[in-house]
Design goal:
- The complex is a heterodimer of chains A (about 110) and B (about 110).
- By secondary structure, chain A is mostly beta strands.
- Chain A is built from no helices and eleven strands.
- In chain A, a hairpin with an 8-residue loop joins β9 and β10.
- Chain B is an all-beta fold and about 110 residues long.
- In chain B, the strands form two sheets. In chain B, strands 2, 4, 5, 9, 10 and 11 form a six-stranded mixed β-sheet that branches.
- In chain B, about 30% of the residues are buried.
- The chains are: A mainly beta (about 110), B mainly beta (about 110).
- The interface between A and B is medium-sized, with 30 and 26 residues.
Chain lengths: ~110, ~110
């Protein structure tokens, strides 16, 4: 049973470009969560999605960031017009159920903005 | 505001000893608490989950306690080994609203030496 897959593992973008981060949840999991980890800081919740629905986006910056989890295919975290402050590790997690269920994390995508 | 505190200083212990890590929280009523392990450059790996109505949970050499009166969880690794060296994160899920929105502490780095 493959774990949570994320790609790319490393992404380098110049300021103003777009970054697309992909996440495939574990088999049988329909709940996806995105977290961001800045250097020397803890993981911060960004958004929680189910198939075709955004359930909680309270941790998402209001501008430039968007997320989706289509009926088919991986979940996508999209960052438009990246700035240096967006450089971080972005982790995706998935769970089988919503409440009181363990979240399993992917290896992360390390975004570097030049 | 909600706060989760883990000792930011690294914990250095000798192989074979018991490592005890602390997670304190304020202004929070968690439904459950989880402990994760994170190695450099990797995603968090789930270790244990303990619910608000549970006092203690064990798994092999790991033990977690949860005191909702003290607002504290202790994480113990008995007979520690150099392979246990990593950063350990505690994460809380709220008792209201979106239970799946985990809030993480910044982690405590454990170093087990021979």
């Amino acid at each position: 049973n493959a774990g949570v897959m994320q790609n790319p593992r490393h992404l380098v973008r110049r300021r103003g470009q777009e970054a697309r981060l992909r996440c495939s949840p574990m088999k049988g999991h329909s709940h996806v969560y995105w977290y961001r980890q800045l250097p020397e800081e803890g993981l911060k919740f960004m958004v929680y999605l189910q198939k075709e629905n955004i359930i909680d986006e309270s941790g998402m910056p209001k501008e430039r960031f968007s997320a989706e989890f289509p009926k088919e295919g991986p979940s996508i975290l999209r960052i438009q017009q990246v700035v240096r402050g967006d450089s971080a590790a972005y982790f995706c997690a998935s769970s089988q159920d919503r409440d009181t269920d363990t979240q399993y994390f992917g290896p992360g995508t390390r975004l570097t903005v030049l | 505001s909600q706060k989760i505190e883990q000792n930011s200083e690294a914990l250095n212990i000798q192989e074979g000893k018991t490592a005890t890590l602390t997670c304190n929280y304020t202004n929070y009523s968690p439904a459950y608490l989880q402990w994760y392990r994170q190695d450099p450059g990797r995603g968090p790996v789930f270790l244990l989950l303990i619910r608000e109505n549970e006092k203690e949970k064990r798994k092999e050499r790991l033990k977690v306690t949860f005191d909702t009166t003290l607002k504290q969880s202790l994480f113990h690794i008995t007979a520690s080994q150099p392979a246990d060296s990593a950063t350990y994160l505690c994460a809380l899920a709220p008792n209201t609203g979106t239970a799946s929105k985990l809030t993480f502490g910044t982690g405590t780095r454990l170093q087990v030496t021979l």
